[in-house]
Amino acid sequence: MKKIICLLLCIVLLASCSTNEPEIETPTPEPEPTEIIDAEPEISLPSLTVEQLPVIDGSTANIPLAEALVALMLNIPRSDAAELINFNGTNDSYINLMYDWSECSLIISYEPPPSVVEEAEMYNFEWELAPIGRDALVFIVNESNPVQNITTEEARAIYTGEITNWSELGGNDVDIEPFQRNETSGSQTLFIKLVMGDTPPMEPDIKYLSGGMGLLIESVASYNNTGAAIGFSVYFYAQNMNPNDGLKFLSIDGVAPTRETIQNGEYPHVNDFYAGIAASAPADSVERQILNWLQSEEGRMLIEHEGYALIN
Question: 57 has which bridge partners?
């Protein structure tokens, strides 16, 4: 712990005279105790070699942040850092952290799926998760679709099969083609948590079940002649990593998703993402140093620089 020590100098004035005049003694002030103030510990990002770099895993939408982080720690170009990143997605990153620290000791990831949480509880595994940024679930449609806004209730009704035609939402007389992700994906986890709640979505036709976020966006875009499709993703990925000029975001409950409305919580479907380590990681471990730094002001500056919304 770095300590700021305030040293107080005591000035002792002694008046003594060798003449016959009476001596006048100046009282010596009592010395004040030295005040020791504990300051906040200085949090530094470790400078590492490639051999010292911990294995980092996480969600697809967090790859840019991991690249920037590795480039800083190794003092290498961003393009070289990208070659050292191999993210396996939200579900698998938590699984890898749980079962094999040599394969993964730090994750930067969206919320874990309920099935993974249950598995961790079953095996008494504890992770330490720190919220470091904010993103949102967004709904994507073709640019040709005249619908601009739907409510959360209408989104839920689309995915239960109650609303089946865009004309019911003020659009064209076209059947709605709703795409979902696989149940363990990060965006599907957010979709269930933020939109569906306790209401189960309808079982999707296999042709509407997209594996990766990029594939879902491409699937929705393929309906550009009719504007029939709707899908969902996380804002950062769809806006910054895989933008498509033929698609647009729907406003939800009258609020358009932007970095600003996500950060201030005005947009309704926001959720944090995390940096995580095993709770048993030593205090001086590299992964814990990185976790702490990502929560510092310098860490927040990096997260914001990469285009993510911050947690206020």
Answer: 107
What confidence tier does 41 reach under pLDDT thresholds 50, 70, 90?
low
Find the radius of gyration of the CA atoms of the chain.
28
Determine the average pLDDT of the residues in 248-259: 98
**Length of the chain measured in residues:** 312
List pLDDT tens digits, range 73-99: 999 999 999 999 999 999 999 999 999
Quote the pTM value.
Answer: 0.83
Q: Provide CB contacts within 8 A for 69, sequence distance 6+.
A: 45, 56, 108, 290, 294, 302
What is the rounded CA–CA span in Å between residue 214 and residue 244?
A: 10
The rounded distance, in Å, linking the Cα atoms of 250 and 143 is 10
Of 61, 81, 83, nearest to 73 by C-alpha is: 81
